[in-house]
Specification:
This protein has 3 domains: 3-286, Pyruvate-ferredoxin Oxidoreductase, domain 3; 298-484, Rossmann fold (3-Layer(aba) Sandwich), CATH 3.40.50.970; 570-680, Rossmann fold (3-Layer(aba) Sandwich), CATH 3.40.50. The protein is 35% helix and 18% strand. The protein has 21 helices and 23 strands.
Length: 685
């Protein structure tokens, strides 16, 4: 066992007795293994030689350990541990700091589905993956280069995805016999060869953190909670990160608890010093800033961007935004964030259930505000009749569905794209609504803005599809020029002279939108509700011909939206061997896969759909220019089925429903099979 002690100068340093002005570090000799700096006489004696040489050269007792710095163009890091270990906070702070340092970033927080699973068990593992680079990236990476495992359960769940020869940082304090048993290991995985093939670094985070915080007044439990910051400090040293942004964030987050602020910062700096001084960490890594388009950026999550898009739309329309919502994972953050924009005319109402929430939003739209309701798949099911009411009443309504795995309540924290058919057809009768989908966290801003524009211009409900991967993921977002966002024209029906008959369903000849009448406006009294309307007058009607006409008219109104949206474009040539269609959060992995295959010389292009109802007018023609069309979806092929039925084109489905997003290599493998199939048929270029 080699111990380097902090303290006063040593006049006659012996081989194991130097004292250096740094925090105490332990390197424990163990059986030979691939772990960095552990169990190998070579690194230990090399460390001794370098420190001794530094001391004897200038006659001082300050030791200096030279360490290499390696330049990389990208790194993928995954933090994993119990939900109480602060993995999301740790990942978020690393992400914020890295964004400020100019790297491109993509993140993937992976929450446990259990609210509070027993500590140390597999269902309770929480993870946060981030990828940062010196070039433009589209996904948070397929497999981590570095895995920080806070306990055996985290190791059990995530080790299989760590790249071979990747760095594995283990919290050795958590490897008790009970912890190992909870993680479903028969024996300690550190001793049976399980970790062979990875570069393993063991750190007793609990002991090191308590030692660093020995002078604080916090109790033992509070000190232990700071171990994630100690781990963060280690990672900051490893990747040349600046601690200042995190210092400011911690000071702001816990400004009412100065003891907590001081402890977290002490732990983080101690972790940094530990990595800098111990021989266990032999190399630091540096990732230069990315060359992104010029502009002002902020790191943004999907729910945040969608919220800002809704607010921007309401501002450009000059309307009050009313949110009627009931908390549900993973949509709740939109309610939380919108509640902070009262100064921008936003009113938020947390209802007693999903039905009350959407009913209140429809009422707000009837009263002349922009009605919005947010939920996930189970909530959309409960709101379905009320959405049908908005279809019949022809009122603007934005319904945000942040999708999660189902059916029923399913897996609340896992992602899926399986609500498309529910959004399209999940209402009584023929009740079409507009449907569009966000594809990245940054894209969610314009999707929210577009949803507001279309709902107001066409007087119709609009369903926005996001998902947990987009909602909780983050990336750099260039702040838009708000002055350049288009104004959204809103015209309310004017007052009517006494004796004039108001015609609430008299329509705009281009959009087929009916007039919007504010209650209380003189002369605009009319009947409204969920019973079929007579054309123009809005009176209740059971006439067969009128019902046919109104159903056709409402359908045509939604179809006309295609004239108000951009046609689709392709990533790559607009004709060729394989066209990869995508919608929603599959965009990043599809983009990476297609670019990879294009570099190899393959005739592959991609097309991403924002509008799902109506579909872009040029989509069919585009699909016909390719020999094969494939469609990756996080469902059992829902859009694939719709496109086959509508265009009679044999779209090939790539389906996945395991609650995890597509990885780039999965799509590359399937596309390679398609290309080989075309080659075998003699139709490939």
């Amino acid at each position: 066992m080699l111990r380097w002690h902090s303290g006063q100068r040593c006049v006659s340093p012996g081989v194991f007795g130097w004292r250096i002005a740094v925090q105490r570090v332990q390197i424990v000799r163990s059986s030979p293994s691939p772990r960095l700096g552990v169990g190998h006489k070579g690194p230990l004696l090399s460390a001794v030689h370098r420190i001794r040489h530094a001391v004897m050269a200038d006659g001082s007792s300050t030791a200096f350990v030279q360490k290499a710095t390696q330049d990389l163009d990208q790194v993928v890091i995954r933090f994993a541990g119990d939900s109480g270990d602060g993995m999301q906070l740790t990942g978020d702070q690393f992400t914020r700091t890295t964004a400020l340092m100019g790297n491109d970033i993509a993140t993937f927080p992976d929450f446990p589905a259990e609210i509070r699973a027993p500590a140390g068990t597999l269902p309770g593992v929480s993870a946060f993956q981030l990828r940062f680079s010196s070039f433009d990236i589209h996904t948070p990476g397929d497999a981590p280069d570095v895995l920080v495992a806070m306990n055996p359960a985290a190791l059990q769940v995530h080790l299989k995805e760590l790249k071979k020869d990747g760095i594995l940082i283990l919290n050795s304090a958590s490897f008790s016999a009970l912890d190992i048993k909870k993680a479903k290991y028969e024996v300690d995985p550190r001793t049976d060869g399980t970790l062979s093939g990875w570069r393993v670094i063991e750190v007793d985070l609990e002991a090191r953190t308590k030692e660093a915080l020995a002078s604080t007044a916090l109790d033992a439990r509070s000190k232990d909670r700071c171990k994630n910051m100690y781990a963060l400090g280690i990672l900051y040293w490893m990747f040349h990160r600046d601690m200042a942004p995190t210092e400011r964030a911690i000071e702001e987050k816990f400004k009412k608890k100065p003891d907590v602020v001081a402890a977290n910062l002490m732990a983080m700096k101690a972790g940094f010093d530990y990595a800098e001084t111990t021989e266990v960490f032999q190399t630091a890594y540096r990732v230069p800033p990315a060359h992104l388009p010029k502009g002002t950026y902020r790191n943004i999550m999907g729910n945040q961007a969608l919220t800002l898009g809704l607010v921007a739309g309401a501002q450009k329309a000059g309307l009050e935004l009313f949110l009627g919502s009931y908390p549900i994972t993973p949509a709740s953050d939109i309610l939380h964030q919108l509640s902070g924009y009262k100064h921008l005319g936003v009113v938020t109402f947390q209802a007693e259930d999903e039905i009350a929430a959407v009913g209140a939003a429809i009422g707000a739209s009837y009263a002349g505000s922009l009605g919005v309701t947010t939920t996930s798949g189970p909530g959309v099911a409960l709101k379905s009749e009320a959405i049908g009411l908005a279809v019949m009443a022809e009122l603007p309504l934005v319904v945000v569905d942040v999708q999660r795995a189902g059916p029923s309540t399913g897996m609340p924290t896992k992602t899926q794209q399986a609500d498309l058919l529910q959004a399209m057809y999940g209402r009584n009768g023929e009740s079409p609504v507009a449907v569009l989908a966000a594809s990245t966290p940054a894209d969610a801003f314009m999707v929210g803005f577009e949803a507001v524009r279309i709902a107001l211009q066409f007087m119709t409900p609009v369903i926005v599809l996001s998902d947990g991967y987009i909602a909780n993921g983050s990336e750099p977002w260039m702040l838009p020029d708000v002055d350049k966002l288009p104004k959204i024209e809103v015209t309310f029906a004017p007052p009517q002279a006494p004796g004039t008959k108001f015609e609430p369903y008299k329509r705009n000849p281009k959009t087929l939108a009916r007039q919007w009448a504010k209650p209380g406006t003189p002369g605009l009294m009319h009947r409204i509700g969920g019973l079929e309307k007579q054309d123009v007058t809005g009176n209740i009607s059971y006439d067969a011909a009128n019902h046919q006409h109104m159903v056709d008219t409402r359908a045509q109104k939604v179809a006309n939206i295609a004239d108000a949206v951009e046609p689709v474009a392709t990533l790559g040539p607009d004709r060729g061997d394989v066209l990869v269609l995508g919608w929603g959060s599959t965009r990043g992995s599809i983009t990476s896969a297609v670019l990879q295959l294009q570099k190899q010389g393959h005739s592959v292009s991609a097309c991403f759909l924002r509008w799902l109802n109506p579909l872009p007018r040029n989509l069919c023609e585009l699909m016909q220019r390719f020999k094969k069309v494939v469609l990756p979806e996080l469902n059992k092929g829902q859009l694939c089925m719709m496109l086959r039925a509508k265009f009679l084109i044999d779209v090939e489905s790539i389906s996945k429903v395991d609650g995890q997003p597509f990885k780039t290599h999965e799509i590359v493998a399937r596309l390679s099979q398609c290309l080989q199939s075309l080659k075998n048929q003699g139709v490939s270029r």
